[in-house]
Amino acid sequence: MAEEKGKVVKLEKKKKVVDPVEASIDIATQEMIVRSQELGIETVFDRALSMKPCNIGIQGTCCKNCAMGPCRLPLPKGGIEGEDERKGLCGATANTIAARNFARMVAAGAAAHSDHGRAVAEVFMSAAKKETDAYKIKDTVKLVAVAKELGVATTVEVDGEVLDRDLDEIAVEVGEVALNEWGKPEGELIYLKRAPKARYELWKKLGVLPRNIDREIVEIMHRTHMGVDQDYKNLVKQCTRASLADGWGGSMLATDLQDILFGTPSPLQSEANLGIMKEDHVNIIVHGHEPVLSEMIVAVADSQEMVDYAKEKGAKGIQLGGICCTANEILQRHGVPPAGNFLQQELAIITGACDAMVVDVQCVMQNLANVAKCFHTKLITTHPIAKMEQDNVIHIEFDEHHALEDAKRIVKMAIDNFANRGAEVMIPQYKSPLVAGFGVESIQYHLGGSFRGSYYTLNDNIINGRIRGVAGVVGCNNARQQHNNATLTIIKELIKNDVLVLTTGCNAITCGMHGLLTPESAAVYAGPGLAEVCETVGIAPVLHLGSCVDNSRILLAATEVVKAGGLGNDISEWPVAGSAPEWMSEKAISIGQYFVTSGVYTVFGGLLQTTGAPVFQKYLFEELEKIYGGMWDMVVDPVEHAHKMIAHIDKKRKELGIDKARERVLMDMASRQALDV
């Protein structure tokens, strides 16, 4: 297929094409699906229609871990009563096979998040040692706070006087300690003790404290090799170690070091959806997960030099947009608007207005290269571990030591490409305002102000019943489900029932696209108690907490709730639930496992690849609650999904003795002073 300047090069039309309305509830997405079909361009939505999932693979009971397989153990019609007699060639049972497959998803997900964290730690170290001019420590307050968590001294005694230690010295030692967490030969991960004491002691008692990040991932791969671990309970125990190494290790370190390097987010306004793209501007879409590159793209694109250069080439300016978690990273720190979530990445190019799409790692569809061939778009890969085989893809390997030069080259390439646009530009005119950039610190500020910042306000409103509980709703999109539908249905049902929602990743972008991330949305969608709290403190009923590694912010916020008092001594005791409505990625399985083993009831939408091994599934869905206080669940219907979360929240309220709302009392000054906050 040859490219023609100024023209869309159309692909041969496929026989099976998806109904746009059945594919997505988002109007902008529907419009772009119609456009793709008119142009004969296949998208993920069409492929989901024409390619059905493997019936046995979706049950989780297909083993291809050795060359005697694949061994396929379908669930017999009518199910199995009693002992499961199905076996692979080596004798592995359905439970062993399903547990191994589950474990390998945890390993891959934990590796993806933790390798992200390692890359950030390496750049952090370069900045701390002054080896790069592009990156500097932006948040010294958080640097000192993180240093204390990592056991790095922040003061020094000189002649009997305690003085603040030099920030450069602190930064270098923080970098050294952080990098050591990936491969230290002995001990345990330092951040585990950030969890509530009761939770840490439970992990210690159960023998699941991660030793270092890399070891736990490697051990899963060893255990799931043919002929090693054949006890599904023991495999899940190692899943716990690896997932905790993700949530309380690699991801948490990634979030903290990114905040120090690029600035801790605070609430800001922006907007979301494909309508953020501009026909008279150079449109650059950054897509992936690591903000190391995108931070430099933002800096260069905002420079007067590049803006002037764009105007010389006939554009009115430069419009940056994001896809997936890179979008969330540059949104929460700079207000750069997300162009869409995971399933919209092809559609951003199909607008015909995308002059360059710059990608790094994770959730990047290889079909972007095929779609880019149909337009003028430059598709640029930037990471040494993430290349594409197609010949129209440009690879510019990003190096933190030459970060600004690399970013400038990329932005300049996009500007030069503006003149090559065809006449067939169609940008859907749909976008919604949003407020993003919440975190542990900003939530604390909103609840109590500069001098009385505390999670006590949140706890008090949970205890008195205005807020029924809290839900973390996170994760991806999945082309096997109607785009955005489950996420929005579940979240609207939760906030209608006075449940405050914390969101990250593509779920957060979905909420932004559909108007749930503004304070005004509380009056429209939230129940009376939650709406009152939102109006009082000026927040939305759904709080954007960042990218998928920033699920660590949810863990720490949960810990702050426990510390504030009145809602038990552990995360498992207070009214909280987790959800991944449209999950797709192996990262979601790692996230789910570390939430479950942190004590959170966690519901996945669609299907979990465990149904072919009922005994193993029962262990995840029932037995884990007896061990960790949290458990997995799976619900296809989104309304039922939300109500199972609400039922769990109500159960926890009853156990705490706060299931009946407290009568509201007008407090005098003496009563307020008696509050220990």
Q: How would you characterize this protein structure?
A:
The protein has 677 residues and is an alpha/beta fold. It has 3 domains: 169 residues, Substrate Binding Domain Of Dnak, Chain:A, Domain 2; 147 residues, 3-Layer(aba) Sandwich (Rossmann fold); 242 residues, Rossmann fold (3-Layer(aba) Sandwich). The protein contains 26 helices and 18 strands. The strands form 5 sheets. Strands 8-7-6-9-10-11 form a 6-stranded parallel sheet. Strands 15-14-13-16-17-18 form a 6-stranded parallel sheet, sandwiched between helices. Helix 24 links the parallel strand 17 and strand 18. The longest helix is centred in the N-terminal third of the chain and has 35 residues.
Number of helices: 26
What's the architecture of the largest domain, going by CATH?
A: 3-Layer(aba) Sandwich
Unreliable spans: 1-6
The beta-strand count equals 18
By CATH, the topology of the largest domain is Rossmann fold
Radius of gyration from the alpha-carbon trace, in angstroms:
25 Å
Helix-and-strand structural type: alpha/beta
Query: Which overall shape is indicated by the principal axes computed on the Cα atoms?
Result: globular
Roughly what is the average pLDDT, rounded to an integer?
Answer: 94
The domain count comes to: 3
Q: Indicate the proportion of strand residues.
A: 5-15%
Query: How far is the first residue's CA from the last residue's CA?
Result: 68 Å
> Reading side by side through the largest sheet, how are the strands ordered?
8-7-6-9-10-11
Mind describing the biggest β-sheet?
Answer: 6 strands, parallel
What percentage of residues falls in helices of 4 or more residues? 40-55%
